[in-house]
Amino acid sequence: MNRRNLLKTLSITLGSSMITTKVIGQLADDKFVFDIGTAKKYEPIKKAITVVTIGGGNRGTVYGTYAANNPDEMKIIGVAEPDQYRNEKYATQHKIEPQNRFNTWEEIFERPKFADAVIISTPDNLHFAPCMKALEMGYDVLLEKPIAPTEKECRAILAMAKKTGRIVAVCHVLRYAPYFVKMRELITKGAIGEVVSVQHLEPIEHLHMAHSYVRGNWHNSKTTTPIILAKSCHDLDIVRWVIDKPSQRIVAMGNLKWFRSENAPKGSTARCTDGCAVEKECPYSAIRHYHDERKRLSYLDIPLKNISKEEQGKLILAKLKTSNYGRCVYQMENDQPDHYVTSIQFADGVTASLSMEAFTSYAGRRTRIMGAMGDLVGDMNELVYTDFKTGKKTTFVPKAVDLEGYKNAGHGGGDMLMVKDFVQAVATQNPSLLSSDISVSIESHVMGFMAEKSRKSNKMVDIKL
């Protein structure tokens, strides 16, 4: 087979069913660009599904974008959001009628069922109650991860989904990213032989850690969710998914080492705006991060359009003087570990290690999968396959997904591809179209809760589903 015909064959087959490793080997020392998002076959939607969004913040906005760009498939007809700025912004984007705008999730369910599904993208501690009520009333649900803050609540949602026969899609978006889909396909089709072990790194990136898990909404595990679930249930899930064997035992270690009051530099103040003597040189300066570099402003609810740069700067400084985002990272009420390592044993003797690290200059998951006949090494930008028999390497490069106007979709394309599959599942009432139905996604949560139990007890813990 000449190279031109080989590439044609690959473009047809790699999107769904893997071809033999012999054919892959013919791409030795080269790269193959693929886009599962366009290769996957989808049935035409006869009628757009209708959705109500509970929580109009960052994630609700991301998932709602799919509807804005694909009105023939999905239509947002309602929103519940207590923050009036977010409520107005979301309602305007989706042209939501005044009677379908609510302040609280409870108000939605005071009315008879008026949509096909709900998106639940509220804070972690507000997942359980609205999800249970939505299922009781006959709605299908797209549920942001983590499923719920406790194992008991997670299992209760699963039980309610089974009882009512409704769909609950968990937002484990990495399962839909072409990069991870390709990783799993290669393993499933035997490219590296029997899987022996997996090493997975989640580098949070130091400023992301400071923003979300020191100053931000998830800074306190007691009021939200332990960081192993809030941040890394994606990673527990993807490790389980690519290994495709039940988890059995887990052991974890980690603690809050750096973001503590005793590590506060001399001359620091309660807020970066209080005349801190070391603010200019501090890597975690809120003034530099939010005001000077204008990063993550959407989380501060700062208007980004139709406002001068000077006025925007004034609003940012005002927010830093009144919100947690302006506080010193060493003087918060945070308790989330800033480094966390866990080892997991799966069936058939397969082992995996997951390392979640705050102190990195970079983000993006790194994964190494060791098999008896080859290995896979990737960083979400490229996935390098090495065949032990020949020593040849093949690099797979996921193409940036562009789904009808939504370019470079989040999580490597996973965000929009997940919503697309959810639309298909609801429209056809077929949950098997989802990679992350709650019946399979719950295992990663149990793993996370058991990891916390291990970390706090200094013991290895059995995983029981």
UniProtKB/TrEMBL annotation:
Gene3D superfamilies membership: Dihydrodipicolinate Reductase, domain 2 (3.30.360.10), NAD(P)-binding Rossmann-like Domain (3.40.50.720)
Pfam families according to UniProt: GFO_IDH_MocA (PF01408), GFO_IDH_MocA_C (PF02894)
SUPFAM superfamilies: Glyceraldehyde-3-phosphate dehydrogenase-like, C-terminal domain (SSF55347), NAD(P)-binding Rossmann-fold domains (SSF51735)
Residue ranges of the TM segments: none
Residue span(s) of domain Gfo/Idh/MocA-like oxidoreductase C-terminal: 184-459
Ranges where the Gfo/Idh/MocA-like oxidoreductase N-terminal domain occurs: 50-171
Protein name, entry field: Gfo/Idh/MocA family protein
